[in-house]
Amino acid sequence: MMNLTQIQLSDLKIGQPLPHNLVDQNHAVLREQGHIFKTPDELRNLPVEKIFFQCKENQLNHNKPNDYPALFDFNDMQLKVGDKLLLKPQSNASSLCFSKNGTCMVTVIGYIPQVTLMVSLPAAEQMAGGAFVEGDQMQANLFNGQNAFSFRVFVDYVIKHPFRCLCLSFPKHINGQIIRKSRRIRTEIKARANVTDAQILVTNLSISGAQITLQDDLGLKLNEKLELSFELRCEERNISMLLNMNIKSSNVKSNLLFCHGVEFINLNTEQVSALRSFVHQEIVKDPSVVI
């Protein structure tokens, strides 16, 4: 027996064969099993909004859309001068010791196709240990506003004069993930509210709202207002946030934690910029945080 499993456009992977026939709600085949999408535009130009995988019942748990990786080429990243890359040394980069979480942020200076990718040297405060050594292997992460990308490169040259930069090997094998427009991410941010002294945990966050979790019942009804304060860690600095919000949903988890979905209201330009920067930064670090 064949079943239809509805999927989102973001579930489809570029560069990998479809695990099942792709059909519309009338069972008409849009793309056959094994078809490979080559560009993001090809995905966006699918003729219908509702799409489904057509598969046998016993295959539903074996070939889910997220089980196959997405492969991109360099042009898909739309890399620009000034874009930020997050670098993380791999096992053979023993000479390096980045501070904090073992990563550092660099800026794209330029590239020569199939030859080299040039980036700035990290700021001194991001480094704690030896300098870069030619031959070091790095994992680079990039988020371009729509997709999160990851690829491995080697340090070809370390240049300190007349300007400081790294010449990296040109990316060849690029993995990617299509990120939903809402870009809500998992977090564990401690917060305080104006209606209780209990500690609150922000368990997911976007530029428009969040989910907050606590052990006490706030006693607030839907659409009642709340003021929440917390800190965001953005590029080695703390940003204090004091946000007004409405309660949009409430429920109690099985472990007796109270969860509330909140919507931010009356955000100013600085608050929107801080939230956007933080979400962007966390996706670059780890694309799997996207919900």
**How many helix segments?**
2
> What is the string of SSEs from the N terminus onward?
EEEHEEEEEEEEEEEEEEEH
User: Which percent band covers the strand fraction?
Assistant: 35-45%
Task: Give helix % range.
Answer: under 10%
- Count of extended strands: 18
Strand order of the largest sheet: 6-7-8-11-10-9
Mean pLDDT, to the nearest integer, reads: 80
The biggest beta sheet, please?
6 strands, antiparallel, barrel
**Gap between N and C termini:** 32 Å
Q: What structural class do you assign from the helix and strand content? A: mainly beta
C-alpha Rg (nearest Å): 22 Å
Shape: flat
Low-pLDDT runs: 57-69
Describe the structure.
The chain is mainly β and 291 residues long. Helix content is 8%, strand content 45%. The strands form three sheets. The protein has a six-stranded antiparallel β-barrel. The longest helix is centred in the C-terminal third of the chain and has 17 residues, at 269-285.
Characteristic key phrases:
six-stranded antiparallel β-barrel, single chain, 8% helix, mainly beta, 291 residues, 18 strands
What does this entry show, briefly?
With 291 residues, the protein is mainly beta.
